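Structure, all two chains, one model.
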Amino acid sequence: MATSKVTTASFDAEVLKSTTPVLVDFWAEWCGPCRAVGPILEEISDEYGSKIKIVKLNTDEESAIAIKYGITSIPSMYVFVNGEVVKQMVGAKPKPALLKELESFLV
Amino acid sequence: MSEVRNVVIVGSGPAGYTAAIYAARAQLDPIIYEGSVTAGGALMNTTEVENFPGFTDGVMGPDLMDSMRKQAKRFGAELVTDDIVEMDLSGDVKVLKDGSGNTVKAKSVILATGSAYREIGLVNEKRLSGHGVSWCATCDGFFFRGQTIAVVGGGDSAVEEATFLTRFAEKVVLIHRRSELRASKIMAERAKNNPKIEFLWNTEVIDVLGADKVEGLKLRNTVDGTESEQAFTGLFVAIGHIPRSELLLGQITLDNEGYVICEDRSTRTNLKGVFACGDLVDHTYRQAITAAGSGCAAALDAEKFLSH
């Protein structure tokens, strides 16, 4: 399943009220490492979409949410379970490293 | 996969791509592992490069790397957007494993893995990374609009970051442990003339303060040892780089800082058929153009090695 875009308006329904864990990728067009990690997140979403939902939040367009969660570096990848942030990852990582970090959500 | 390639290039900054261009034109059919998240190397996180010859009006770092990549591809280099995670370089046939678990074998290897950001080494620097501590001004400057932030370092990258950050920040304080900058004169002058940049000379950062986000820094004067605290909402660390040579430990001769040691003026390492170039070998110059030059030399050295 491809990743989807999340906005300030859809954040509550898509992320906070989701019944599966959600990884929110805070990113922007002008951020090189964000563009590098983008295709890796697509692959993970394709392979593990039933276990974890991956959504992308553009920090340029949706700055209210980025500010709310205190984002100061991108890419930042936060995992939400039952509306709470349970894991924070900062910076682009290779796929094996990301999968290892996300291990507990993928079983 | 039992095919043995002529040459595998590991890493993809100006050194790796230039090696790929030369090796491809020498019909060595090179394969280059660009890195899964580091493709293009350090220049991907820069803005304008003003000193790369041939670009009268400057060129954006990512655009320059994209052009080199396309040039390598045009001559038939095989580009792989993955990491090399294991290498056995000792035999006549070198065996490398990528991040997806594939193995590639080759008669020669060109190492161009570059360098990573150096950290100050403070516990709270790591803890607050992503919460006000950053290593990438072009990625994160945006989040510090109207704020007072610090840049630590005194070289070209620190001065470039400080200058770039004035687009967003209200004030940028450049903290340097010496009394003058190491940066090139033109960049230093530009920073000194920028009304948004202030300098804290002879000062080092000894702690990063804040519970959930950066609120300030604890500083020490390197001359008289006095300590002080100052409020900042962000800290950009630009104190240089460390060579990415961890996969080479125990195989390739490194100096005590981790740089690969090459024979005389060549790119030959202590192992036959293994060549090294770019920031991985260079303490001294560390420029895009010197990296590209050494990548060219590595491809020529590999070509010569393969013809014997």
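Residues 209 and 261 of chain B are 39 Å apart (CA to CA).
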